[in-house]
Amino acid sequence: MVDKPHLDEEALAELRDVMEDEFDVLIETYLSDSADRINTLHRALVAEDNEMFTKSIHSFKGSSINIGAPLLGELCLRAECAGRNGHLDEAGQVLDRIESEFRTVSDLFQRLLNA
Predict the structure, then answer these.
(1) In this structure, is residue 37 part of a structural domain?
(2) 88-114 vs 70-84: helix axis angle to the nearest 10?
(3) What is the crossing angle of helices 9-19 and 23-47, to 10°?
(4) How far apart are CA 13 and CA 54, in angstroms?
(5) Can you tell me the distance from the alpha carbon of 7 to that of 106, in angstroms, rounded to the nearest whole number?
(6) Residue 114 above 60 pLDDT?
(7) What is the CATH number of the domain that holds 62?
(8) Which of these, 55, 53, 42, 30, lies nearest to 105 by C-alpha position?
(9) Does position 115 have pLDDT exceeding 90, yes or no?
(10) How many domains does the chain have?
(11) 2 has a pLDDT exceeding 80
(12) Which residues of 70-80 are buried (b: 16+ CB within 10 A; e: fewer)?
C-alpha cells in the first residue's frame, strides 16, 4: 500500500484557517456522513448493486481527500476501481480495510476536536 498518513496536517491547518469557528462542525458532519456512506456501501454489496456502490464510494473518496484523510481516500479509490470493474467481492474486501481506517481517522478527529 502507498505510504499515506491517516491525516494530512497541512490540509487540516488550511481547513481550520478557512472554516474558523465552523471547523468542528465540518469534522462532525464528515464523520456522520461517512458513517452513513459506509452503511450505504454495505447495502450496495448485499444488493450486488455496482452503480450504488461506485457512486457512494466515489463520494466518500472525495470527501475523505478533501477533509485531509489521504489513506482513507486511497482505500476508497481502490474500492471504487474494483466496483467499476464489476468486482464487488474485491470491493467488499477493501471495504473492511476502509472501515478499519475510518475508525482510526474518527479517533484522531475526536482527539483533535477535544484538544
Answers:
(1) yes
(2) 160
(3) 120
(4) 30
(5) 10
(6) yes
(7) 1.20.120.160
(8) 30
(9) no
(10) 1
(11) no
(12) bbbbbbbbbbb
Tell whether pTM > 0.90: yes
* Residues found in the chain: 115
| Mean pLDDT, rounded, of the chain | 94
Angle, vertex CA 101, rays to CA 92 and CA 57, nearest 5: 45
Residue at 4 is within a domain: no
Q: Provide CB contacts within 8 A for 22, sequence distance 6+.
A: none
For residue 36, give its domain range.
21-114
Amino acid at 40: T
pLDDT band at 3 (very low <50, low <70, confident <90, very high): confident
Domain assignment present for residue 6? The answer is: no
Whether residue 53 is predicted with pLDDT greater than 70 in this model: the reply is yes
Using the predicted structure, report yes or no on whether residue 1 has a pLDDT greater than 80: no
The grid coordinates listed for 79 are 474500492
